[in-house]
Amino acid sequence: MTFRYCRPAAFIALLAACGDDGIRDTAATGNQPSTAPTSLTEATTGPTTTDAPGTTQTPDPGTGTTDGPTSAPTTTDAPGTTSVGTTDGPGTTTGGDDCLPPDALILLDRTQSMHRTPDGQTPVDAPAYASSKWSLAISAIETLTAAPQDDTVRFGLELWPRDPGGGACVTLAERIEQNKTATNPMCEAGEVVLAPALGSGAAIADLIDPATTLLCNTTPTGAALITAGEHFAANKEPGREQYAILVTDGADWDFSCPDPSPLTAVQDLAEQGVKTFIVGFNGEEAMLGATEYLNDLACAGRTAKGFPGPCVPTADGFVAVEGADIPVYLQADNAVELGAALKSVAGQLCCGCDKTCDAPDVLFALDRTLSMHRTPDGETPVDAPNYASSKWSQAIDAIEQVVGGGLDTDLRFGLELWPRDPGGGLCITLAERILDTKQAMNPSCQDAEILVPPALASGAAIAQAVDPLTTLICNTTPTGTALETASTWLVNNAVPGREQYVVLVTDGADWDLSCPDPSPLLVTQKLAAAGIRTYVVGFFGAEAQAGAVQFLNDVACAGQTAKDFDVDASRWAAATRPRTPTAWSRCTCKPATASCRRPSARSPTRSCNTASPAESCPKMTCPQGHVIAPPRVTCP
């Protein structure tokens, strides 16, 4: 059987931060990413193709040009796509002399809900109301477009909906102090108040002011995107890339202006070669359905976190994985996050400059189960007292080489051990396991523990946290729970524009016998739906006979990192397309009551989860008080 995950000999070839420009049409080209983790997958050609740990050569992170597997509805690059330069080193990419500064049209939501604070409150900081989303958004946009950034990107500005004049729209103060409502016509198009051009930062700052630029009624998001598409089409230049940056709180569009569909509009922009960044500046609206809606837009715009991992192709374009409720758009709930979100966009688009990215989170999830005491070929080590031939010793040594080799200045490394050591001497040392002088008595299938949270310059802390002779190994193999622990930390600590990765280091043994629930495959799919890729390092020999190869191959494919993943479309589809009505992965456990959701761009009718079992979910079992929830059906 072919190994699709990382073999131990390739382990040290991990990562070279921020090499990908992040904006090429990855789904269309079908090549692997030039981001750090590509070095891992490119090196994993089996046990005979790489040097021993510590000597594997890391490919130049700048040689790649795309990000992720091919599975898009189209098969060519977006019109006007050009190379943006070569990578000089981790964290920066220098634009070539022949690059053209791209057009970047900012679509600023001026609807009345922007008067609130990001958490949905009415501002009380008169007279400037700097805590309002409106003030914060304008300030962040002015920072984004200021010199010298505006010498490398042709920024433009669209306000939506259009202000018809005559006092129909209202000021921020009128909306807050008088609760005055705008009377402009409903669902008007946007207006491009400044066409993209170099050196436009000062002009944009002159055009928008929180106190005087008016707020208008209704939320015609789809019409605003169509206005942008028309402008881009009329001003297309050969070789010049075009981008839309939608800044919105995501509220009310489906009630006030559901037609034209924002999703269709973003998919149409993608078809004409325009990528769309989605900056969701919202707190309260996320609880009202905005997350799913904005995830769809980010996928359609081909800029979702970890794209195309959290997205699936349809006949019309990409949409988010069904049921995903973790933001893969650029979510900002406060001024700091909004600034980070826009900064991450700017770092990807500039031409003739050093491209930047926020160092990604890379969380090692190290298997500390009892079987790690053996050698990779399944034998009992005889090289006392250090037992350097054990998988446990070799895995710790390899991780320390990676995090201690200087990469921790460009990557935010962290370390998780699984299962958790409950203390009290219940887990055992490597020597106790090898000499069979003590048995591990820890509770079965415990969760993991994060010893070192992902952070810059964490190499020394990781080296201090683990030692093969003193760090204990434990009983049972809760692989799925370990991945859930990693997911929880990464999701709770996500930063807008920062990529996140899990590196699962395991011998792959025994999980299905000792701890089959939760399924590692399903958890890995959920990670991918959150834009988090999972790399799989399978460190074993004897366990291959017990089905570990197939298991780890499946996890690597679900994690969107398998070797040759870009050409294995069928495997990707099987791992990430839970929309198929007969797909068992679409079935979930829900409380034994039906729940309805409000309409969305993808589902224009109300829908609900029914409490009755479905024939399409034959493999599902649910805990007490829960039932199988089959695919959504239309509510009566």
From TrEMBL:
SUPFAM superfamilies (alphabetical): vWA-like
Biased amino acid composition, Polar residues: 602-613
Low complexity bias locations: 37-103
Pfam family, one: VWA
Domain VWFA: 103-349, 361-556
Region (Disordered): 28-103, 598-617
PANTHER family xref list: VWFA DOMAIN-CONTAINING PROTEIN (PTHR22588)
Protein name: VWA domain-containing protein
